[in-house]
Amino acid sequence: MTTVRIPAGWPATEEEARAVQDGLRARLVLDEPGPPPGTGRVTGVDVAYDDERDVVAAAAVVLDAASLEVVAEATAVGRIPFPYVPGLLAFREIPAVLAALDALPCPPGLVVCDGYGLAHPRRFGLASHLGVLTGLPTIGVAKNPFTFTCDPPGPGRGASSPLLAGEEEVGRALRTRDGVKPVYVSVGHRTTLSGACAHTLALTPAYRLPETTRRADALCRRALRTATAPRA
DNA sequence: GCGACAG
DNA sequence: ATCTTGTCGC
Questions:
Q1: Residue A108: how many other CB atoms lie within 10 Å
Q2: I want to staple A188 with a disulfide (CB 3.0 to 4.6 A). Which of A43, A49, A79, A131 is the partner?
Q3: Are A140 and A116 in contact (CB under 8 A)?
Q4: What is the DSSP string of A160-221?
Q5: Which residues of A are annotated as a binding site for Mg(2+)?
Q6: A227: Cβ under 7 Å from strand C?
Q7: What are the tens digits of pLDDT across the range A53-66?
Q8: Distance A51 CA to C2 C1' (A)
Q9: Cβ atoms within 10 A of the Cβ of A172, count?
Q10: Where is this site: Interaction with target DNA (predicted)?
């Protein structure tokens, strides 16, 4: 476990944060195919909070993309750097996530985020932000449609429908389990939407959510408990 | 102007 | 995100 250091100049206001998004968005790379699903490594990142004690814990879990076995994992703990504001989630999560990624003993490969990438009011959600800051290919897999709209995908696993911001397809509602509500997939950085969906399906052999996020979720909660546990 | 809104 | 027990179903 490492300690999070909030970057100098981290935004303090919503206005500053939105300006950062508008500035970094130009660095997004959206014309790369991304890594092929089922090969190399895939890393899940997630964050848990104790607002009461002002503690944030992040986890990064590296899986072998073919076997989905855990290859490596790391956690980071620190203070909460930004309040939760819809559209500005990245400023709350990223410092801890970067610290956890830095603590990994091996390259992460594709990073799977719990949240959105291009499906964002300014087309720069958590997954895109993390991708630009790290240079890594990223995708976002969220549990809710946020403010976007979509028709329900067909009932079978693999069915999908466009996630729309007006006329623009910003992501896809993707059914990962028969008859279970879909997840919402969007491109983060250096990936394509169809590739992001293919990765998501490869990561969901048994549950609605990707193995990456399930592992990272469990690990960051554990790290938060440990960090806030009363001292002996 | 008011409410809704990833985690 | 987080607060929270049992319960229905494969």
A1: 25
A2: A131
A3: yes
A4: EEEEEETTEEEEEEE--STTS--EEEEEEES--HHHHHHHHHHT-SSSSS-HHHHHHHHHHH
A5: 46, 114
A6: no
A7: 999 999 999 999 99
A8: 9
A9: 24
A10: 84
A 124-143: CB within 7 Å of strand B: 125-127, 140, 142-143
Instruction: Let me know: does A157 contact A178? Beta carbons within 8 Å.
Output: yes
Q: Is the pLDDT of residue A87 over 80?
A: yes
Packing angle between helix A126-134 and helix A90-102, nearest 10 degrees? 40
Residue A6: predicted pLDDT: 81
With a cut of 80, say whether residue A5 has pLDDT above it. no
Domains of chain A: 2-228 (3.30.2170.10)
Question: Cα–chain-centroid distance for residue A169?
Answer: 19
Confidence class for position A107, pLDDT limits 50, 70, 90: very high
φ, ψ dihedrals at A124, nearest 5°: -150, 65
Q: What are phi and psi of A203, to 5 degrees?
A: -95, 5
Task: Report the distance from CA of residue A231 to the C1' of nucleotide B6 in Å, as an integer.
Answer: 34
For residue A170, pLDDT over 80 is answered with yes
